[in-house]
Write a structure and sequence with these properties.
Length: 135
């Protein structure tokens, strides 16, 4: 979990540095509008427990074929990669959305930072911004 925390902190820091640079540039050029950005990172190699789990769903209905034990083999989530699981990290700012697709099913994995949200409006106003509603 140390690695996951380091990645998450790095993403936050990167967005903060980028935001600061954008604000400085926007101020010099008298730009009133904001910006959006989104980053998705898949990182592989996080450890998983080796204890076998009882099969669930369809896997519980059919017996698993006999397999020769492989020493020190960790279960994995990435085909042909040695052990470990992949984790998805998503960082975003502004009015943008990340959607994870599996086949034809979509799963929203971010929450829009829309100025209509009370917490987002407070954040914008605290930073000296103004939220107006177009007619």
């Amino acid at each position: 979990e140390k690695e996951a925390a380091l990645i998450a902190e790095s993403l936050v820091e990167s967005f903060e540095v980028t935001d600061k640079a954008w604000l400085q540039s926007a101020k010099k050029k008298d730009i009133q509008e904001g910006s959006t950005g989104i980053v998705a990172l898949v990182s592989h190699g996080f450890t998983t427990p080796v204890e076998p789990k009882a099969p669930t769903g369809c896997a519980a209905l059919w017996p698993k074929p006999k397999e020769e034990p492989v020493p020190d083999k960790q279960p994995g989530t990435v085909a042909r990669a040695v052990g470990g699981v992949a984790k998805l990290f998503v960082a975003w700012a502004g009015d943008c959305r990340a959607v994870l697709l599996r086949g034809r099913q979509g799963l929203r994995i971010s929450e829009d930072h829309r100025p209509q949200r009370a917490d987002e409006k407070r954040r914008i106003e605290k930073a000296g911004g103004l939220v107006v509603r177009d007619a």
